[in-house]
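testing teh design pipeline on a random one, pls ignore if ur not involved
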């Protein structure tokens, strides 16, 4: 039962679980019933999106993210696995790869760790996922124990402000988020506490953020240490100079450091900065003469061209960067960087570092001289002969700026001296290509010498102070190039990777070897962690006498040594070395297997780059300069100096560096570049994974996880965890550690007690920290409880002592009303507690406020009432009355002011109500408040309100009358307009609501039928026709297919029709062609006719063919007259003629014939209507075939409505109708009536008959004079104008047709029959 209760508590109501936060800001969870504590969020508190996903999940490789989750769909019998990614894509994994898949547990992904050592599992996918999640949250720093990983965000983040520096400086024992400031602070703290020099090794590839990390570390030291002579500011001022001359834009970074540097900061015994020294390594001098696409030369070249003032421009003969060959190879702009501003910063820094004017002039003169040197061009003049092209003054400008003779410069770069022992020197001319190489070599060599001088000059300006003693205390910051594997790797990459091998060896020694030395000294049990020892690779590169660098130096001493002979010897010597390999396809290349991976080196140029010196002619030419500054950069060389190669010098520098680092306690920052596009918030997993591999991060995580990364001294451990046994006493700290380990539920196998400390792993750390957090939480709550109770008791005692005094003071002050007595009582109460206010104090403060307000209000009210302008002073009076009400003041002035304000407030309320009535068109509100306005004498808004009331009355009367009228007429447009106007003034009557019902809730077809009925009832034939057409349209939309011509019941059966021809050889053709065009006369009528009419039908068909041009006739109009005569005299033949015309227009190959057919059809329709059985078939044909159909449809309905013409049209009338005219005109009597009504309507502005009738009704109850004068003129005229506009275009005339008087009764009958038929239909 108890077990079930415990399980229910863990899985059941969330009230048992509570969430807590550690002082470090980490969340953990505690169950108050079971006592269970966990870092993992329990299911009872999880939301739906936090629950674990079902099934088996693994990590799978991904091109963008590195690794992504995938669900195991099935496993094959051969070991293969079918996986499905989260996007639904499936992938079959072969057995070999399937065996290496890493399991994924979703709970591991919900809590990104600040320290990778704290991860539940140490695997690459989890590390990449952790870094990515933190990166997306703008947390760019992550720890691996004491190693800091920094991922470049490529955007500004608020991480380096003075307040952040202060937070890390005063962190004490608090655990703060990983930061470069934390590394810097640890280095500074260890320096001061242990009196041992420190170092910070910052590594990473170009664009990873090494330079920024270095600057921030220097900034931190400058802020927290400071100095007495502003040395720290000089250290910071060195950055602009070194960045201008040593940094450049690359495809990976806009401000990439193109040299390695080690900055040593010297501290005095008090911890203040007293000096600094920088050492530079491997400047990328080749950038001076050649830049890759998307990159730039060193910043200084562009800054000088753009930022120099007018005097400098003239002095150094400058132009824009696009003018010089060394700066125009690629675009010169950098987003977000202003070269003019940067040059000004550079000049300020040089001034602050006390560069002399001569030094600054010499530096800029040399830079300008190199720019002009690069513009010198050559052309071949023969075999290995060339000359300088004199297209500009580049040679002269370069020579004058460098202060050498132009002739000497020309000779030095177009020829060289060949010296052989025992023989005279030989002068050898150079080809144009060789001259270009020598020109560029000179530029590179001069720039390198200049850069070295700048570094030394900065060191001299800063100095070392007392830190230059025998045993200096320093913090060194190493900012050096990371491991490089490019598509083409040359001598520079070999040197860089050699340096990284040395640093990795140093890292291994510190991280791995020193780690194990701690375990040995503590005499604990541990398992040796195998790691990659890269000493064999270092031996391969540098060991005498057969290291790669040594063999390159040796090859230079051989008279005919070359890159090819060097590689041949290298292959012979190291063929069996496991860290070396040859390249079969290119025998002159070789492979070195570095710790970070294999690198394919291309040997072309190895010897020349390693030689790293100018030929003697060029060197001697530079020494002839009259510029003392430049001459000092090129001292006379001794034999030993001349023989030092680049590899030799770099090896010496590196050994000195490593010796220096080995004397320090190192700290590490690994900078990571998240994407190649310098794009913010873009994280490409494989790229990050590769850099982590190169920097040894995975090995560091491995040893920290497999070792004992968490350690406390015995005393520290007891003090930290004794809270779990609050009643215990520990006299022996080592024994106390064992006791506490037991109390924490651990054993001494996992948490080992060493000689001086307790050591344990991440898993135990997580568990015991949870227990400690719960214990601390309970202790804190208990302490708070006792402290709060004690403080409350003390406060209560003091309050009871003073309360009688306060009550006595209140009674006295109410009588005396002396402010001094009140202030004294309040001051006495303030001594009790500044946070807890007694009610007596509140009462005293209120009494003080009342006394002050009474005095003030008496003066204010007296002054306001004396002005006799209550309306003008209403706001002030209102405020005064409100204040009087607040303190319950009832003086004579207050009562009088209340009356005045009340009257004014009522008047303003009436005026506001009138304005609201106008805005809302509210007749009741207007009437009510107009009466009040008269009683109160209010003038404001009265005129507008009266005008609106009159207009509303007029409008409502008009709307009512018009609604009654529209219910008779059912004119949709007018009905909608009426409804809109009624809604605009919130007016409704049963008639208006009936209109709303008809418009909004009546089916369209039914409404049209009602309109037709209204048109018939109102004897409006034109509208009846228009509505009928609309009704027909709705009907044909539903049932149009029923009235296709072939379905007409009047037509003969095609077989029957074909059989009526006695002699034929093509009966089937006759059947198929029954309803389509034919070039032959028909043998029988298409409809059922008598024998006599059948003969006439065949004759009529010939007339149809003749008019349409299908048979040759001279007088087509006469044929039409004959056809119309037949139709008017023989009613059964009318539909037959229509059928014949339709037949000849169907599948007619002649467009001209079809056009004539439409003319003939129009003439027939204008003359006689179709029969009732055929009219829908004819209309359907017109609607589908006519272009456009509307005029013909209208004519058809007029014909049906008016019946046949009484006389046969003449040939001229036929032509007129065929061209679009009509023989149907207004009936004379109806026309006369129409003209009389038009004259009546003229008085109403041309509104039409119906509009006139409406306007006349309006005048019956509106005074005509009021329409053009008085307050209501505007709205009434507007209403009348709207009525005119609605009815102006209506034509209310009733159409009739030209009939003889004897046919009027027949016409009336036909109309009635038509209307009744359409209405019923």
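output:
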């Amino acid at each position: 039962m108890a077990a079930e209760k415990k399980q229910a508590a863990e899985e059941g109501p969330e009230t048992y679980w509570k969430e807590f936060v550690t002082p470090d800001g980490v969340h953990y969870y505690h169950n108050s019933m079971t006592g269970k504590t966990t870092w993992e969020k329990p299911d009872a508190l999880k939301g739906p999106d936090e629950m674990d996903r079902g099934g088996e999940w693994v990590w799978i490789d991904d091109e963008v993210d590195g690794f992504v989750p995938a669900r195991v769909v099935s496993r094959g019998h051969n070991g293969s696995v079918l996986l499905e990614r989260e996007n639904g894509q499936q992938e079959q994994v072969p057995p070999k790869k399937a065996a290496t898949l890493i399991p994924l547990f979703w709970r591991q992904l919900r809590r990104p760790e600040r320290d990778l050592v704290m991860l539940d599992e140490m695997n690459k996918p989890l590390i990449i996922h952790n870094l990515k999640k933190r990166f997306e949250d703008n947390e760019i720093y992550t720890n691996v124990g004491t190693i800091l990983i920094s991922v470049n965000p490529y955007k500004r983040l608020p991480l380096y402000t003075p307040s952040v520096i202060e937070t890390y400086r005063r962190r004490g024992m608090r655990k703060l988020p990983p930061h470069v400031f934390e590394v810097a602070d640890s280095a500074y703290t260890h320096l001061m506490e242990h009196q041992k020099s420190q170092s910070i090794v910052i590594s990473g590839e170009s664009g990873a953020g090494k330079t920024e990390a270095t600057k921030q570390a220097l900034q931190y030291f400058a802020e927290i240490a400071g100095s007495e002579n502003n040395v720290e500011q000089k250290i910071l001022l060195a950055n602009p100079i070194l960045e201008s001359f040593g940094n450049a834009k690359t495809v990976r970074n806009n401000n990439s450091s193109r040299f390695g540097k080690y900055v040593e900061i010297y501290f005095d015994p008090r911890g203040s900065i007293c000096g600094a020294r920088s050492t530079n390594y491997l400047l990328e001098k080749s950038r001076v003469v050649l830049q890759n696409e998307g990159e730039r030369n060193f910043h200084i070249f562009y800054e000088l061209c753009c930022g120099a003032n007018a005097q400098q421009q003239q002095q150094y003969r400058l132009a824009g960067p696009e003018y010089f060959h060394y700066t125009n190879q690629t675009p010169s702009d950098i987003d977000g960087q202003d070269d003019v501003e940067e040059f000004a910063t550079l000049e300020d820094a040089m001034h602050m570092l006390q560069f002399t004017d001569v030094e600054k002039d010499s530096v800029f003169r040399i830079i300008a001289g190199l720019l002009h040197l690069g513009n010198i061009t050559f052309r071949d003049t023969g075999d290995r002969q060339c000359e300088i092209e004199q297209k500009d003054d580049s040679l002269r400008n370069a020579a004058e700026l460098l202060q050498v003779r132009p002739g000497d410069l020309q000779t030095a770069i177009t020829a060289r001296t060949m010296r052989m022992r025992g023989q005279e020197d030989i002068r050898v001319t150079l080809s144009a290509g060789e001259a270009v190489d020598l020109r560029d070599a000179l530029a590179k060599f001069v720039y390198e010498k200049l850069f070295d001088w700048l570094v030394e000059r900065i060191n001299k300006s800063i100095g070392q102070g007392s830190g230059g003693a025998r045993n200096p205390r320093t913090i060194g910051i190493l900012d050096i190039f990371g491991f490089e594997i490019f598509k083409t790797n040359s001598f520079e990459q070999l040197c860089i990777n050699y340096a990284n091998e040395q640093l990795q060896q140093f890292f291994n020694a510190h991280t791995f070897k020193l780690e194990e030395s701690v375990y040995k000294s503590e005499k604990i049990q541990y398992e040796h962690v195998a790691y990659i020892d890269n000493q064999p690779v270092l031996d391969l590169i540098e060991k005498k006498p057969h290291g790669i660098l040594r063999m390159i130096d040796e090859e230079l001493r051989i008279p005919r040594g070359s890159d090819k002979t060097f590689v041949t010897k290298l292959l012979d010597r190291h063929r069996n070395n496991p860290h070396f390999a040859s390249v079969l396809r290119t025998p002159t290349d070789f492979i070195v297997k570095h710790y970070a991976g294999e690198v394919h080196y291309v040997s072309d140029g190895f010897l020349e780059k390693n030689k790293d010196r100018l030929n003697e002619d060029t060197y001697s030419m530079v020494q002839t300069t009259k510029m003392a500054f430049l001459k000092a950069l090129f001292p006379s060389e001794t034999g030993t100096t001349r023989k030092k190669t680049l590899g030799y010098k770099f090896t010496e520098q590196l050994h000195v560096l490593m010796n220096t680092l080995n004397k320090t306690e190192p700290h590490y920052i690994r900078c990571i570049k998240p994407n190649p596009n310098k794009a913010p918030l873009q994280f490409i997993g494989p790229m990050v994974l590769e850099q982590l591999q190169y920097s040894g991060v995975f090995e560091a995580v491995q040893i920290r996880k497999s070792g004992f990364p968490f350690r406390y001294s015995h005393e520290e451990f007891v003090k930290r965890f004794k809270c779990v046994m609050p009643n215990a006493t520990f006299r022996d700290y080592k024994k106390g550690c064992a006791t506490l380990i037991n109390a924490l539920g651990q054993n001494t196998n996992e948490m080992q007690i060493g000689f001086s400390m307790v050591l344990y792993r991440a898993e135990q750390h997580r568990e015991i920290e949870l227990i400690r957090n719960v214990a601390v939480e309970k202790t804190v709550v208990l302490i708070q409880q006792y402290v709060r109770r004690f403080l409350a008791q003390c406060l209560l005692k003091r309050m009871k002592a003073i309360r009688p005094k306060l009550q006595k003071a209140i009674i006295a002050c109410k009588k005396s009303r002396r402010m001094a007595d009140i202030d004294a009582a309040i001051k006495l109460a303030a001594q009790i507690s500044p946070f807890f206010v007694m009610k007596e104090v509140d009462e005293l403060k209120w009494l003080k406020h009342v006394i002050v307000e009474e005095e003030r209000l008496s003066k204010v009210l007296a002054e306001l009432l004396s002005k006799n302008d209550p309306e003008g002073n209403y706001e002030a009076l209102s405020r005064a009355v409100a204040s009087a009400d607040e303190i319950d003041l009832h003086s004579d002035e207050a009562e009088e002011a209340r009356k005045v304000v009340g009257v004014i407030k009522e008047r303003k309320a009436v005026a506001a109500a009138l304005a609201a009535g106008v805005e809302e068109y509210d007749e009741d509100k207007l009437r009510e408040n107009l009466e009040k306005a008269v009683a109160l004498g209010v003038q404001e808004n009265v005129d507008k309100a009266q005008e609106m009331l009159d207009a509303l009355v007029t409008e409502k009367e008009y709307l009512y009358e018009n609604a009654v009228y529209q219910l008779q007429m059912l004119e949709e447009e007018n009905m909608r307009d009426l409804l809109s106007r009624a809604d605009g003034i919130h007016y409704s009557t049963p008639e208006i609501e009936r209109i709303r019902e008809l418009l909004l809730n009546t089916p369209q077809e039914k409404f049209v039928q009602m309109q037709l009925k209204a048109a018939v009832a109102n004897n409006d034939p034109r509208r009846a026709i228009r509505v009928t057409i609309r009704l027909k349209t709705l009907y044909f939309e539903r049932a149009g297919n029923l009235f296709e011509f072939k379905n007409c019941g009047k037509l003969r059966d095609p077989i029957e029709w074909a059989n009526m021809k006695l002699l034929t050889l093509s009966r089937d053709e006759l059947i198929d062609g029954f309803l389509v065009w034919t070039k032959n006369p028909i043998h029988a009528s298409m409809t059922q006719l008598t024998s006599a009419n059948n003969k006439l039908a065949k004759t009529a068909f010939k007339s149809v063919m003749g008019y349409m041009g299908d048979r040759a006739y001279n007088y087509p109009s006469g044929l039409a007259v004959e056809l119309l005569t037949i139709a008017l005299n023989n009613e059964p033949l009318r539909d037959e003629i229509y059928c014949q015309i339709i037949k000849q227009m169907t599948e007619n190959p002649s467009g001209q014939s079809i056009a004539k057919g439409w003319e003939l059809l129009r003439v027939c329709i204008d003359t006689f209507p179709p029969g009732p059985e055929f009219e829908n078939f004819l209309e359907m044909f017109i609607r589908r075939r006519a272009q456009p159909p509307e005029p013909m449809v209208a004519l058809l309905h007029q014909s049906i409505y008016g019946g046949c013409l009484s006389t046969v049209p003449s040939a001229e009338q036929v032509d007129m109708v065929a061209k679009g005219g009509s023989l149907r005109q207004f009936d004379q009597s109806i026309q006369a009536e129409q003209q009389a009504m038009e004259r009546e309507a003229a008085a109403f502005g041309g509104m039409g008959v119906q509009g006139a009738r409406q306007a006349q009704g309006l005048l019956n109850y509106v005074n005509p004079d009021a329409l053009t004068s008085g307050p209501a003129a505007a709205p009434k005229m507007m209403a009348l104008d709207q009525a005119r506009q609605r009815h102006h275009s209506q034509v209310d005339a009733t159409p009739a047709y030209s009939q003889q008087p004897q046919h009027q009764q027949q016409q009336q009958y036909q109309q009635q029959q038509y209307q009744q038929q359409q209405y019923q239909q």
